[in-house]
Amino acid sequence: MKTRELYLEFSVGLFMLLGLAAIGYMSVKLAKKDFFDTGGYPVHALFSNVGGLSPGAPVEIAGVQIGRVKEITLDDYDAKVLMIMNEDVELQEDVIASIKTNGLFGEKFVEIVPGGVDEIIQPGGIIIETEPAMDFEGLISKFVHGKF
Amino acid sequence: MFVRLTLWLGGIGTFHIRRVGRSGIFLIESLACLLTPPIKWGRIARRIQFIGWQSTGLICLTGAFTGMVLALQGYNTLKRVGSEALLGPLVALSLIRELGPVLAALLVTGRAGSALTAEISIMRNNEQVDAMKLMGLNPLRYLVFPAMVAGVISLTILTWIFDVTGIFGGYLIGVKLLGLPSGTYFGEISRYLEMDDIVGGIYKSLSFGLIMTWICCYKGYYTGIGAEGASKATTQAVVTTSVFILIWDFFVTTVIF
What we know:
The structure holds two protein chains of two kinds. Chain A has helices at residues 2-30, 136-145; strands spanning 41-47, 58-61, 64-75, 78-85, 96-101, 108-113, 126-127, 129-131. By secondary structure, chain A is of the alpha/beta class. Chain A has two domains: 1-33; 41-134. Chain A has an eight-stranded mixed β-sheet, with no helix packed on it. Chain A is elongated, with a radius of gyration of 23 Å. Chain B has one domain (20-256). By secondary structure, chain B is an all-alpha fold. In chain B, helix 3 runs antiparallel to helix 4, helix 6 crosses helix 8 and helix 8 (195-221) packs antiparallel against helix 9.
């Protein structure tokens, strides 16, 4: 009787732990869900066009990921992008943020070109110099109509 | 002639409407045990052991082979359009959104649902259920409610195990056999898999668990007489559950995805 009870508890416990391991693997490792606030500080940037950028997209310097896009809102007919930067990355006041595409048709991300001045952007600060997403259709129609 | 036909059709109609009503009342009375303690945790644990733990091996085996055949078939199709790199998302998304919940539910119905119906219907035939009623015990609280809770919990967990073993089965074929880079397989999965897909799969398996235990317990509780009645009830329970799971799956998919 005693061993049967022990076996019951052990097997049910093991079964539930297996299930938790499976869902944990799927959501954290595969779906990249942040259950914990991983730290980092917010920085804003205003773009005239973010075409195709979505929350969760990476923010990179020299191809290395240094943060993520948290949300995109409309602010006085410009797109206001809130990004969460890693704690150990310092951005100078004159950095340039631009929206780039991974390959020709890949996903959009924010690339930051480092600046040269000594002042550092504080948490909650704003990146002043930005370049909007490249507008392929616009470029092609300009080319077709010869208005370069 | 006309009057007799109308009476006959009306009789069939009321019979079926009454049956739907009886199964609905059965479900509500069983779930009402949740609000009126005591809840029999020991019985729930034993049911989880039976429905969940003892099905784990079966689920791992079938999950792995489902993932493997998905990878094999998907690779051949994707190769024609030159996008073998998307094999990982193909396997993972089909498993998590669709095949995991449905196949796990069908397998568990065949393995545990049929046993549930047979057990309750034999207890019914031996008049054990009536004996419980005479002693003032609610048979729904002791037999049906623990099975429902355990079915919902077990099927959800089994679906997760099915999904993960399937993804690794696909990895085995895609990466080890067909030579896709390992980083591509998992990297593309994490690029395309969203939390909404996983949550949708969880909704599905929760509802399938309830449907399975509801129909199987109902068929056992209102079984026929003798060995023939029990065998008929078991067959009906498995067939009805499988059909309802597939129909319900279609409607859930149109609503949540």
